[in-house]
Amino acid sequence: MKETFIKLHISILLAGLTGIFGKLISMNEGLLVWYRMLFASVIFFFFLVISGKLQKISLNDFGKIAGAGALLGLHWVFFYGSIKYATISIGVVCFSLSGFFTAILEPWILRRKFSFRELSFSCIALLGVLFIFSFDIRYRLGIGMGVTSSLLYSLFSIRTRQIGRDFPSRTMLLYEMAGGFLVLSCLLPFYLVVFPVSSILPGTSDLIYLLLLAVFCTIGLQLLQIQVLQKISAFTVSLSYNLEPVYSIILAMVFFNEARELNFAFYVGVLLILLSVLLQAWDTIRKRKMLSAS
Q1: For residue 193, what are the CA distances in angstroms to 36, 83, 180, 189, 196?
Q2: 127/136 Cα distance (integer angstroms)
Q3: 0.85 exceeded by the pTM?
């Protein structure tokens, strides 16, 4: 279990870098995610072929995994949209609501007992996001997109937990990326009609950032996430990911000077979100001590 939690926090650190790439890449959020999943699919496919670890699956199994990949792709679209319409800090903080949605949806979808304790911890994070939502009317569209992205990530994590035990993590990652890419490919023409661009090809700097994003913050990150979700609950993963804003906010302040755009209400919201994480950690430790003592 200790190794699993180490992997979880490494994945959180990598996730903290994704918002930075979202700001650095000049392409709109739809194209950004489409290229991210394309590059990740192709690079990881050749890696598995060369290493002899490519696993073929049935069309039915591909459909199951591709559905999770579609949820992940849509989550990324809204996540990067939140960053581009607001700030990195707001985008990653709104992501913290995934724990709130998971606490409500996971018991219903996975047919397990509802936990009022989990919901109460998540409501503290919700209160933090409400503080942030009130601090500047300019960013409400970005905040709305961030909340939507957290809902989609919650559904993705629950779905991955449902099917993740049936496949190796490398197989899950490949077909999630490929499935998400195919779904986005079907949606992208309509997206570009609504949000037209002058060119769909990335420039040199965008290409470099996209490749780094695909290798480190997609392949590496998702492998770790899938392995973690096979061992611990989707709620614990989602709530632990509330630490992601800490890394992203610090980086955003260093590289983009975002501190000048944030006020007291924002920091109160961040502190409430961190409190929800600490309470969840305390509760997890308490339960483990009770189990070991019994």
Answers
A1: 20, 21, 20, 6, 5
A2: 16
A3: no
In contact, 283 and 239? CB cutoff 8 Å: no
Whole-number Å distance between alpha carbons of 109 and 4: 24
Q: How far apart are CA 52 and CA 171, in angstroms?
A: 12
Tokens matching residue 89: 């800090």
pLDDT tens digit string along 149-186?
A: 999 999 998 898 888 778 888 899 899 999 999 999 99
Is residue 173 within 8 Å of residue 254, measured between CB atoms?
Answer: no
Amino acid at 208: I
Cα separation, 271 vs 42, in Å, equals: 40
Both tokens of 253, joined, read: 């302040």
Residues 124, 276 contacting (CB under 8 angstroms): yes
The DSSP element (H or E) to which 219 belongs, if any, is: none
In this structure, what token pair is assigned to residue 186? 């079907």
The token pair that represents 188 in the structure block: 């992208």
